[in-house]
Amino acid sequence: MKTMKTDRDLQTLIDRYLDGETSPREERQLALAVERRIQILENDETGETGECLETLKALRLMLGELTLGEASYDEVMRKRHSRRFMLRFGWAAAACMTLIAGAGYFLSLQKEPTRQLAEVTTQLTPQPPVRTEENPDAGPQPETIVQPVRESQGKQKVSHPVRTKRTRAQLSGTSSPAEDTKPQDVVMEEKTLAAVPEEEPAETVGDLSLSISPHKQALVDLFLAEEALQVAYELQAQQEVLRAYASSLKGKETPKAIIAF
Amino acid sequence: MTQSEFEHIATQLRSVMLKIARDFFGSLDEAEDIAQEAMVQLWHYCEHIDPKQNVTGLAVRVAKNCCVSWKRRQKPEDPPPICEKAGVGLLSPSPHDILEAKDALNAMEEVIARLKPRERELFEMRQLEGLTLDEIVERTGIMKPSVKVMISTARKKVLTELKKRLRQ
Q1: Residue-range domain boundaries for chain A
Q2: Which partner for A41 in A49, A63, A97, A148 could form a disulfide, CB atoms 3.0-4.6 Å apart?
Q3: At residue B29, what are phi and psi to the nearest 5 degrees?
Q4: Which of A39, A38, A28 is nearest to A63 (CA)?
Q5: Chain A residues close to B149, C-beta within 8 Å
């Protein structure tokens, strides 16, 4: 089938050439094709290609030797350009793949420190003890003041306003254990603390797990403890609401707080 | 074309040939050699060149042929190119190749001489000078369909005559 297609194409080109419809480029292609066909027919041992061979040789004479030389020149240049194009395409593809891989690696590095920080803080932060009837002294005091860690350039003395959670009764000085636990009385009070010398700028995230000063670690612990305390207060408030609702349903005395501070 | 006329346009022709050779080889030294060889071949043929012909086009074709022949000479282990088998642009052809080329040239000249003047003129413009149909139309002032028909007629006549001679 391939040979038949080639013969048909060659015949079509020959017909166009004899009709005067071919361009100089097509005539160069024809010259190459005719020469190749002549070589094949001359090597053919069957000897049944007489008239065809004569026609092709006559066409070769008509097309001329210069046309054939030009066709060879064009073929060499075409192969060379396609080779250069493949090389450039290969380099461009390799460069794109490198960029994509580098971007993916960079993105993975960005996510990595956050995960490390979360793991480290979880490991280092102790769980605040819960105050129960058995251990009434445990748990953080209601007036625990926690100073949040702030980043700043160099050592500076900074005073931060800190909000503490205290009940109205505590503020007025007439507090009682039962009143202390009412969530609607909780008031956020702002206090200005004494200046605390700032630490040096935070170390890189990658070094967090390896070298962290004790003072900084204490600050982190305090911050986390305040967060835990706020969560505990919220839980307690929710419990109070539930107990009140339960007592309203049952008509009994309100039970003691499960978690008391 | 006289030698003085050829010398007049030699510089322009050489620059064109040099550019073609440089594109092919990539080095200036080889390009200079090719341009020189092509100029020598044109010089020997200049008496047969009609001043009205497209000499630049002819120079381009000769330069390309010289490039291909030169390259094959440099790499003898490669199979001989098709154009060398046909005796094209050889820098040092064998006597047999020269004889074959002469016979072929004589046969073509005799056949072309039998064409009508207008057909011969258009055939040579198209075949020897490598002009396109539009360029032929511009030079002769003949309409394009007529040019196409005349070239077609000339080619068919030449093909028939050449086949007869090859059978003999």
Answers
A1: 1-124
A2: A49
A3: -65, -50
A4: A28
A5: 20
CA atoms of B29 and B22, how far apart (whole Å) = 9
The label of the residue with tokens 């009764």 reads A169
Asked if residue B163 and residue B112 are part of one domain, the reply reads yes
Indicate if B24 and B84 belong to the same structural domain: yes
Choice among A17-21, A108-112, A128-132, B39-43 with the minimum mean pLDDT = A128-132
More confident residue, B76 or A248: A248
Residues B60 and B79 in one domain: yes
Longest dimension (CA), chain A: 127
The H-or-E segment that residue B81 falls in is none
pTM over 0.90: no
- Its ipTM equals 0.79
Residue span of the structural domain in which B13 resides: 1-92
Expressed in angstroms, the distance from the first to the final Cα of chain A is 94
B109/B82 same-domain check: no
- Which residue among B64, B159, B166 sits closest to A70, beta carbon to beta carbon? B64
Same domain, B61 and B15: yes
pLDDT reported for residue B83:
44
Residues of B near A (Cβ–Cβ under 8 Å) read 23-24, 61-62, 64-65, 67-69, 71, 81-83, 85-89, 101, 104, 107-108, 126-128, 130, 132-133, 147-152, 155-156, 158-159, 162-163, 166-167
Min Cα distance B37 → chain A (Å) is: 15
The tens digit of pLDDT for each residue in B63-112 reads: 999 998 888 777 655 544 444 444 444 445 677 777 877 887 788 888 88
**In terms of domains, do B101 and B159 share one?**
yes
> For chain A, what is the total number of helices (H) and then of strands (E)?
7, 4
Q: What is the pLDDT of residues A166-184, one digit of tens each?
A: 555 555 555 455 444 454 5
